[in-house]
Amino acid sequence: MKKNCLKCGKEINVKPSQFERKKYCSRICKTEYQKSNPPQIWCEISKKILIPCSYCKQQILRKPSNINKTNFCNINCKKLYQIQNGHLFNQHLRKDVEVKCLTCHQMFIVPKNREHTAKFCSKECLGKANGIRGKEQYRNRIIVSCSNCHKKFEKTPSTIRKLNFCTVACMSTYYVEKEMFAGANSGTWTGGKVSYYGPNWYSQRRKVRARDEYTCQDCGITEAEYGQELSVHHIIPFKQFNGDWKKANQLSNLISLCEFPCHRKRHSRMVDDIV
């Protein structure tokens, strides 16, 4: 079907289903026509009705088909209204029951689905119950003996193990001396020889640095001044012990030195591997 544009009068082809609705040949013509004929636009707007926002009471324009029991001027008003009146929604579906508070023994109302899980009427009662329970659990502590230094200390029943230690230092010392996680006892053991300086090297290294007060025994510089850990040197070269790492790593055969220049000076005078 053919029809003339309202603005420019140009003949346009129109589908039968759009004959009454289509009036312009382009958006440009539509815009220009509506600018020059504002009463037509106002007529469309005038179909809307002024109603108050359900939250802020501000007047808003709405089509009759879009008016509901509650109407809002923006999403924020809707959210605030729901927060303010949330306790009033779906009240016809709510079934309340009375439950006795375990702390103050007062009856309070909860929804039916919380009948067996609600225990306290307020946060204050919950806090009091937690305080009483904490004191009871503390009184249930058991005295145990440290597996390393045999010092007596308290532990809760749930944390008692076959091996119990009073400090992390005691635990580390015990594990190193018993070689519980070294060599074939290690969870990452894949076979082969132990590390070059033996499984007790790192523990002996820590002990030597502590014995020497973290100070180079040749030049006297401290680790704090040096800016890094000191090296630990074998006075008698490690290879002269033919793999006997227990003798090679005795504290009397180890000394703390700064890497440069003291440690390197010692190695320049002897044949050995750099620690």
Task: Characterise this structure.
The protein contains 9 helices and 10 strands. With 275 residues, the protein is α+β, with helices and mostly antiparallel strands. The chain has 5 domains: 2-45, no CATH class; 49-84, no CATH class; 96-138, no CATH class; 143-180, no CATH class; 194-268, no CATH class. The strands form 5 sheets. The chain has a two-stranded antiparallel sheet with strand order 1-2. It has a two-stranded antiparallel sheet with strand order 3-4. It has a two-stranded antiparallel ribbon with strand order 5-6. β7 and β8 form a beta hairpin. The radius of gyration is 43 Å and the shape is elongated. Residues 271-275 have low confidence and may be disordered.
Summarize the structure in short.
It is built from 9 helices and 10 strands.
Classify the beta-strand content into a percent band: 5-15%
Report how far apart the termini are: 97 Å
State the helical fraction: 25-40%
Q: Decide which structural class fits the backbone.
A: alpha+beta
- Order of neighbouring strands in the sheet with most strands: 1-2
Shape descriptor reads: elongated
The mean pLDDT is 84
Number of strands: 10
Over all CA atoms, what is the radius of gyration?
Answer: 43 Å
The number of domains is 5
SSE pattern, N- to C-terminal: EEHHEEHEEHEEHHHEHEH
Map the helices and strands.
Layout: E1 2-4, E2 11-13, H1 27-36, H2 38-45, E3 49-52, E4 59-62, H3 75-85, E5 96-100, E6 107-111, H4 123-139, E7 142-145, E8 152-155, H5 168-178, H6 201-211, H7 223-226, E9 231-234, H8 245-248, E10 254-257, H9 259-268
Antiparallel strand pairs: 1-2, 3-4, 5-6, 7-8, 9-10
